[in-house]
Amino acid sequence: MGLVSKSENEIFEEVEELVRSASLSVRRFQRRKTRKINVGKVQVGGDAPISVQTMTKNPTEDTDALLKEVKEIEDVGADIVRISVPDEKSAISLSKIRDKVKIPIVADIHFGPKPAIKVLEDNLADCIRINPGNIKVIGIDYLERIVDLAKKKNIPIRVGVNVGSLEKPILKKYGRPTPQALCESALFNVKLIENMGYYNMKVSLKSSSAYDTICAYLIFSSISDYPLHIGVTEAGTRISGTARSAVAIGILLWLGVGDTIRVSLAAPAVEEVIVGKRILESLGLRDEEGKVVACPTCARTQIDVMKIAEEVEKEVIRLGLKSSVAVMGCVVNGPGESYIADFGVVGGGSSAIIYIGGEPRLKVGKSSEEISKKLLEIVKQSEGR
Ligand code: SF4
């Protein structure tokens, strides 16, 4: 017809070269250099892997509930756990679980200095978090006592600035808790502690706005090399909080900022850990383990993808399975995703096909119970469970 001016091969070579040269300009992840500190057995900062932490949600004084929650947090693979210590009773409860858990503990202290002193004197935690917004309430003498004890025990301090409890004079000066206000508060308090001769610190500057959080950490990281605990505070519910956290933490990490992360959700702590791990995996900062992919479903869907994927993922997380699993509604993208994953299921016609090692191996009925059961049985068997 005379329409064709280049051969398919010529177009392919042209495209290949364009993609090759464009790939060279894609920014590679470069982590900002920070000091390294030790939170118990977990290193934070420097070249240490980025750790995932969460915070317990039960009253600390309820020892049984606290221990159960920390064990669940450990089981799901968190690196560090933070526990609020609002009073002496909580410190006593903490002392009862201290030897029963393997994960490093950060004691979260606000207002009253007595729990901080007890935590440090009795070696109840691997790190202590203080909130600069409360230091005026604590009083500088008590801060000095806390710093002196931390120094003697070589326990790091996290200077944890939060948008909800910024010092009043700084808030007044800026009119609202701007990124600059957060930085000023953090830096001032870091310098107060440095002035007491202590440098074993990490810092957080959290806002409930993802945008302000990003700006605050970028500003602070350009003027300080203390390791940074990053996250959006009071991020919200499962869906909204996950979105805000993933955007802020993801962007900061991509820009090389952040040494330990916490996703703050109005949801159980184990969910915060899972979201945190997924953020690191998504950026290639942690190996993907137990990955469940699922298609979004559409009019072509042949099986109950949502139910099966939920069920399979729940078990994969609960049992700590390592395999990747694809749950796919039909043959459009199903075979392709199942080829990439260790295991897969694809809806088609009157049955569903289970893939093993990228190959279609087994036909099962279309009921979600049957599919989930069989798929999990095969995955568990392959991992010797
Ligand atoms: S895999 Fe099939 S069912 Fe799932 S979204 Fe794609 S076309 Fe729809």
How widely separated are the two ends?
A: 62 Å
Bound molecules: iron/sulfur cluster
The CATH topology assignment of the largest domain is TIM Barrel
Shape category: globular
In spatial order, strands of the major sheet run 8-7-6-5-4-3-10-9
Helix content: 40-55%
Average the pLDDT over all residues and give the rounded result. 94
Can you tell me the CATH architecture of the largest domain?
Alpha-Beta Barrel
Roughly what fraction of the amino acids lie in strands?
15-25%
CATH class value of the largest domain: Alpha Beta
Task: Provide a brief overview of the structure.
The protein is of the alpha/beta class and about 375 residues long. The chain folds into 2 domains: about 35-280, Alpha-Beta Barrel (TIM Barrel), CATH 3.20.20.20; about 290-380, 2-Layer Sandwich (Sulfite Reductase Hemoprotein, domain 1). The protein has helices at about 10-25, 65-75, 90-95, 115-120, 130-140, 140-155, 170-175, 180-195, 210-225, 240-255, 270-280, 305-320, 335-340, 370-380; strands at about 35-40, 40-45, 50-55, 80-85, 105-110, 125-130, 155-160, 200-205, 230, 260, 290-295, 325-330, 345-350, 350-355, 360-365.
Keywords:
five-stranded mixed β-sheet, 385 residues, TIM Barrel, globular, 14 helices, 2 domains, alpha/beta, 17% strand, 45% helix, binds iron/sulfur cluster
